Amino acid sequence: MAGHSKWANIQHRKGRQDAKRGKIFTKLIKEITVAAKMGGGDASTNPRLRLAIEKAKGQSLPKDNIDNAIKRGTGQLEGVVYEEVRYEGYGIGGAAVMVDCLTDNKTRTVADVRHAFNKNGGNMGAEGSVAFQFKHCGQMIFAPGTDEARLMDAAIEAGAEDVVTNDDGSIEVITPPNDLATVLEGLEAAGFKAEFAEVVQKPLNESVIGGDDAMKMQKLLDALESLDDVQEVYTSAVIDE
Fold first, then answer.
1. Is 59 within a domain?
2. What's the total number of domains in the chain?
3. Cα–Cα distance between 16 and 225 in angstroms, integer?
4. Domain enclosing residue 22, as ranges
5. CATH number of residue 54's parent domain
6. If both were cysteines, with which of 44, 73, 159, 188 could 33 make a disulfide (CB 3.0 to 4.6 Å apart)?
7. Cut 0.70: pTM above it
8. Positive or negative, the Cα torsion across 115, 120, 121, 123?
9. Is 198 exposed, middle or buried (0-12, 13-18, 19+ CB in 10 A)?
């Protein structure tokens, strides 16, 4: 057993994303473009692109937007050239924070990220300052009440790396990054539907933050996530609702 309020945190995150759907579309289009640029426009041979497209469909991004993003990535259409960049830092109580961005102007992006940290009680660290506290992996989360034994059998059969039951009853399935799409398809074929499925930077150790510190930490995370160039924010902090 592991984790604290994992399910509540996932649901809270999904709620915040739904409230920012216009910005979500922009981030999805960027990710599809970069995925196609790096691995080609064929989703069947490009796991990152396949996941990006599935995520986009889950957010009801129109098919034309998806197709055009792929064409921009493969050079069939002209478009902005994005670069991947990561920033690391600390939040409230020293919680580790990693910020993944896609940008066409690193000078602008680093200034915006540093400002968000400084204004909200955090501070940016040097490259590598917190990265060792995270594991790059595929992560799926299934709702409390899911048949643990059957899910575990199906996950192992599909090629998962680990299955973890959290304190709140939710179940995590962990995979190597490039195997997430394949394992997800295997679990869906077995009748399981993940509420969350992404390649993530998973914290190796989590710290629960409550009270005023929780509100401050959430404000910092919201400030970072609201930046146009930010794709994902990962943290070792678990906000206690």
1. yes
2. 1
3. 10
4. 6-74
5. 1.10.10.200
6. 73
7. yes
8. negative
9. middle
